[in-house]
Amino acid sequence: MTSPSSGRRGAGKPHPSETAVDADRPPLFVASIVVRWRDLDAFNHVNNATYLTYLEEARLQWLRHVPDWFNDHAMPVLAACQLNYRRPISWPAELKVALGCEHLGRSSITITHRIVDAADPACLYNDGHVVMAWMDPANGRAVALPQSIREATTPKP
Fold first, then answer.
1. Do residues 13 and 82 make contact, with C-beta atoms less than 8 angstroms apart?
2. 130 and which of 49, 59, 81, 121 could share a cystine (Cβ 3.0–4.6 Å)?
3. Where is this region: Disordered (predicted)?
4. Residues whose CB falls within 8 Å of the CB of residue 96, separated by 6 or more in sequence, listed in order
5. What is the pLDDT of residue 28?
């Protein structure tokens, strides 16, 4: 759908990743990341590819708290990613990466993310989502999402 006022597809309607990790819905997990000097590129800000490393680190910090999230017959792979670069990250910086659950499928989970400045959470550097799918490493076929992942993404009363 194209907005008549802007001509941009979907304008006026926020993408789910822009609303999935917010004050109305507590995040699944918040990781702390310290920007390293080596993360910078020739333009003196964090290289765009390094954001993927920050997200990987945040997911692994979260998964360390989830029992039985992989085994010899079921392991996660990154199936898709959407990163929206909102502003550059300079050094030095401490970041918070908030993860949320947008969707649970039979064999996959869509995890939203927001990378913000630790000292100023209103300073949004990046948002978006990734899809992680579980597969059997022996044959490469999709397998059911582990029950522990389903439980870890269910809000507690």
1. no
2. 81
3. 1-22
4. 30, 31, 32, 33, 115, 116, 117, 118, 121
5. 92
Please identify which residue in the block is written with the tokens 């522990």: 148
34-57: pLDDT as tens digits:
999 999 999 999 999 999 999 999
| pTM of full prediction above 0.85 | no
Domain ranges of the chain: 16-152
Task: Give the sheet arrangement for strand 75-85, strand by strand.
Answer: 29-34, 94-104, 108-117, 124-135, 75-85
- The pLDDT tens digits of the residues spanning 124-146 come to 999 999 999 999 999 999 999 99
Spell out the SS3 assignment of the chain.
CECCCCCCECCCCCCHHHHCCECCECCCEEEEEECCHHHECCCCCECCCHHHHHHHHHHHHHHCCCCCCCECCEEEEEEEEEEEECCCCCCCCEEEEEEEEEEECCCEEEEEEEEEECCCCCCEEEEEEEEEEEECCCCCCECCCCHHHHHHCCCCC
